[in-house]
Design a protein that fits this description.
The complex is a heterodimer of chains A (about 450) and B (about 475). With about 450 residues, chain A is mainly α. Chain A has 18 helices and two strands. Chain B has one domain. Chain B contains 17 helices and two strands. The chains are: A mainly alpha (about 450), B mainly alpha (about 475). Chain A: This is DUF3526 domain-containing protein.
Chain lengths: ~450, ~475
């Protein structure tokens, strides 16, 4: 057995094509690792830097803003309520796997006493859509796309070519277990590909200033399962009595189906199970609510002060400043808009859950979802973050609204006692284990089938 | 001689089992994706039209209120899609679906479909364009990787050589035969696309021109792959090496080059963050652009100018509404600053696009994708054109509301009111997608790259012919 292992190593080493394939793989993974690692560090540095707390509203918009001398002490409660730095979604230790998602999904939300939902400056990120259409060098995506192709290039036709040239017949007469040769050959290739994958992963994580060892460990586990799955599948194709060219085409077809076809089908199925809400319908509903709110403005103001008469003082309702007079209507409007916007987060989280349950059908999908989980940018966590932001927004407003409505002065003691935002920063270990478990099971099943059928390698 | 070889190659390819199996599979895949995306496009178009009309009607039916308050209600506009977007949705998943037009500021489009999706096209869009630029070249490789090497392995190449068949005639005959067989097999797909588009959309001459150009671009693209495949088959001694190299080229062209190109653009011409972008606009409005003075200074000068113009001593004595005048003055400046920053941002996007083509040496797919998006009207240039038209419309209806406010108030009072007749008098936003000439102008670089690849592929094929040994 050891002799077979040694000979197979010599065969691999002496074929310049194998070296070329592995070198190209290593270079591309290395490039991706460097780009992803540096980009992840950049994103973390930007998130950690002092954020611009002031509202993005420009001076032209502030024509009706409260004047400084309209309030006791200069900076009133209203200005203070709009002066909170954006709330940040804490990024986890695996961000390097998935950096471009940070721009797409949005990790920063600004809250204030005004509704944040209709102004894109409060939460939307800025990116070039063309970069996303072409796809960037996200480490997990590059790994998921390239690895099967490398496996195919290294292993297709290993047996078929020897069968076609008649060498395999000779091999089968020389040994009772020709499958040992095949498995050794595949084993060496698996080891080399896994080495390149792990080395480039280590490089990526080292370059990311905020990476975590636990994230790297989880990532290595799932990438090893991924590599094992593809080598097992390649091994099964070696059993087929077809030409090496046909085997290559067949493996490529499998790659296309498992990497592109199955995720697309799952996405479609998820949409059929629960159709995606329409942004355009939401826009129409928001506008209807805005007009209604505008018509009810005076009534809502009167009702608010009926409930809080002690805060009105001697000022007639008609003489109240704009930011006070419009606040009850703005709060009611926001309470109606919020569930409309939250449904998109909920839908995304449900879609993620659906796809995760079926991720065993597409290893590439499992890798992408794992990268999302490890980076902290997965849909369920984002939905939880938005829910936490909403909750904080309610506390923020509960803290400020009485002072704003009372036109009270704002002091340092109040500033020091501001509500704090806290969001759970840890991995969802159960979900990570579930994902890895599914993928490992999928790879192990494929390997088990290959091992069960190994004696068929004796057929020539 | 070329014609004879071409006919023989055509017959051989059509009889090849691979063509039947793979061609049929890809036809089914293309048909599935295309029918789905054309249905989706039609549904999307109808929804945009309906929602656009509803949003405008909501604007029209606003209650009696101050014209500026009405302006703040805003108008939503939506970018119309061309029928060819059913073939290549391009940037649509990553650009916002809606644009809100309101006073004082210019917005970016919001709610890109990918942000609402889990996978967000991480492995590429599941669309008919993916079949066209990624899978069909693979079919060509699968059909032709052993077109010469197999003849060499079987010994028939030696026989052809002994019969005096010129290598150039052989290889170019194989190229033409392969392409003819390929297009014969693809013709049902082309027919399906044409009939579906004609049935679901009203195709204008411009649309037909676009589709023809797309077909021509695809012909050039597939010719590159076919020429390189046959040339590689002639060059390499074994089919295995040929297949390996061609698959490597295909992978590099289709998957690596676009990603590498995007990363090059991102590194060499980084975009500002959202907070940096908006903060810069806010600062420039407050502090003024170089030589313009701060907002306070500009307002003071404007007030003095207005008082002098109307020959009054104070704002309260003005026969028109000063609040509206002042606001409009500030809005003009705000628009100027926004225009400057938006132009800079979009120029940076365009620079990133140009830089991305540095990776075009890896393969022609990057160039074809850029060309295809431009022809389908789903590229950056078309998005910018739409946004500029929307911005012009925004200034029109904001100016109109300010005119009403100014004319119906006096001095510093704010008693102007508008009613439904005013809101209805605002014309609808009517945007026409530019003609195909605009698309071609925006695609000069990808056209050049694709042309260079075509020339290089044909030259390599001729070079392989010169070196062909039985």
């Amino acid at each position: 057995m050891m002799a077979i292992v040694k000979v197979e190593w010599i065969r691999i080493r002496r074929n310049p094509l194998n070296a070329a394939i592995l070198l190209i793989f290593a270079v591309l993974m290395g490039l991706s690792a460097v780009w992803s690692g540096l980009r992840a560090s950049e994103i973390r540095a930007a998130a950690a830097a002092p954020q611009i707390a002031a509202s993005a509203a420009n001076a032209a918009e502030m024509h009706d803003a409260p004047k400084a001398d309209a309030h006791d002490g200069g900076d009133g409660a209203y200005a203070a309520s709009n002066d909170r730095a954006p709330l940040q979604l804490p990024l986890l230790g695996g961000l390097v796997l998935n950096v471009s998602q940070a721009d797409l999904v949005g990790t920063s939300i600004k809250v204030s006493s005004r509704s944040r939902h209709t102004d894109g400056r409060n939460s939307d990120q800025l990116f070039n859509p063309l970069s996303y259409e072409f796809g960037l060098l996200d480490f997990a995506s590059v790994f998921a796309l390239l690895t099967p192709l490398v496996v195919i290039a290294l292993s297709y036709g290993l047996v078929q070519e020897e069968r076609e040239s008649g060498v395999w017949r000779l091999v089968c007469t020389q040994t009772a277990r020709p499958w040992q040769l095949v498995l050794c050959s595949l084993g060496w290739r698996l080891l080399l590909v896994a080495l390149v994958a792990c080395a480039s992963s280590l490089l990526a994580f080292l370059l990311d200033s905020g990476s975590a060892l636990s994230a790297l460990a989880y990532w290595c586990l799932i990438s090893l399962s991924y590599v094992l799955f593809w080598f097992s599948l390649a091994g099964l194709f070696l059993l087929l009595p077809i030409s090496s060219g046909a085997a290559a085409i067949g493996l490529l077809g499998s790659w296309l189906i498992l990497t592109f076809g199955v995720p697309a089908a799952l996405h479609w199925a998820a949409d059929q199970t629960r159709p995606k809400p329409s942004r355009m319908a939401a826009i129409i509903e928001i506008r209807r609510l805005q007009e209604l709110s505008n018509q009810q403005r005076q009534n809502l103001l009167a009702d608010w002060f009926k409930a809080h008469p002690e805060l009105l003082g001697d000022t007639p309702l008609a003489k109240l400043p704009r930011e006070v007079a419009g606040l009850p209507a703005a709060l009611q409007l926001d309470s109606q808009i919020r569930p409309l916007m939250l449904q998109f987060e909920t839908h995304r989280a449900e879609q993620f859950g659906f796809m995760q349950r079926w991720s065993w059908t597409s290893p590439a999908l499992a890798v992408a979802l794992m990268a999302d989980r490890l980076s902290g940018l997965d849909a369920p966590r984002h939905a939880s973050f938005v829910a936490a932001v909403n909750d904080f927004e309610d506390r923020w407003r509960a803290y400020f609204v009485p002072s704003i409505m009372a036109r009270a002065a704002w002091n340092e003691a109040q500033q020091a006692a501001l509500p704090q935002f806290d969001f759970d920063q840890s991995f969802d270990v159960a979900e990570l284990n579930g994902l890895i478990g599914l993928q490992a099971l999928s790879a192990a099943s494929m390997l088990a089938v290959l091992l069960a059928l190994r004696r068929r390698f004796s057929q020539f | 001689m070329i014609a004879i070889v071409m006919r023989k190659e055509l017959a051989t390819t059509l009889r090849d089992g691979r063509l039947l199996v793979l061609g049929l599979s890809l036809f089914v895949l293309f048909a599935g994706f295309f029918l789905f995306s054309s249905y989706q496009l039609q549904a999307q178009r109808l929804e945009k039209q309906r929602v656009g009309a509803t949003a405008k009607e909501q604007w029209n039916s606003q209650s009696v209120k101050n014209p500026h308050a009405a302006a703040h209600y805003g108008i939503y506009v939506f970018k119309p899609d061309l029928p060819s977007a059913a073939i290549d949705p391009g940037l649509t998943p990553f650009t916002g679906q809606s644009l809100w037009l309101e006073p004082h500021k210019r917005n970016l489009t919001r709610f890109n479909p990918s942000a609402d999706d889990v996978l967000a096209n991480r492995f590429g869009q599941a669309s008919s364009s993916f079949v066209l630029y990624a899978l069909l070249p693979l079919l060509i490789v699968a059909l032709s990787f052993n077109s010469v090497s197999q003849e060499r392995e079987r010994g028939t190449l030696r026989m052809l050589h002994s019969l005096g068949v010129a290598p150039r005639a052989l290889l170019f005959g194989k190229l033409l035969g392969l392409l003819t067989a390929f297009w014969l097999v693809m013709s049902p797909a082309v027919l399906l696309a044409a009939l579906t588009l004609a049935g679901q959309f009203e195709l204008a001459i411009d649309d037909l021109l676009r589709l023809s150009l797309l077909l021509a671009g695809l012909l050039a693209y597939y010719t590159v792959f076919a020429a390189l495949s046959i040339g590689a088959s002639a060059y390499f001694r074994t089919s295995r090496n040929t297949l390996f190299c061609l698959l490597g080229f295909w992978m590099g062209s289709v998957f690596v080059a676009p990603r590498l190109g995007a990363a090059i653009g991102d590194v060499l011409a980084p975009n500002p963050s959202a907070s940096q972008f908006w903060d810069a606009i806010k600062t420039d409005i407050a502090q003024g652009l170089p030589g313009d003075g701060s907002k306070q200074q500009r307002e003071t000068a404007f007030e003095a100018q207005v008082l002098a113009q109307y020959g009054v001593a104070s704002k309260e004595q003005l026969p028109v509404g000063f609040v509206s005048l002042n606001r409009q003055y500030n809005d003009v400046y705000s628009s100027k600053v926004h225009q400057l920053h938006f132009d800079r941002l979009r120029a940076n996007f365009a620079t990133q696009q140009q830089l991305a083509h540095l990776a075009g040496w890896l393969g022609p797919s990057l160039a074809l994708r850029s060309l295809s998006m431009a022809i389908a009207g789903t590229d950056l240039a078309h998005q910018r054109d739409f946004e500029d038209a929307a911005e012009e419309y925004r200034r029109y209806f904001i100016d109109l509301t300010e005119d009403w406010d100014r004319e119906r108030s006096h001095g510093t009072e704010r008693s102007a009111k508008g009613a439904e007749t005013d809101w209805r008098s605002v014309r609808d936003f009517a945007y026409t997608v530019p003609t195909v000439g605009f698309s071609l102008k925006a695609s000069l670089l990808p056209l050049a790259v694709l042309g260079a690849w075509l020339g290089a592929a044909l030259w390599l094929l001729a070079h392989s012919a010169r070196r062909l040994a039985p």
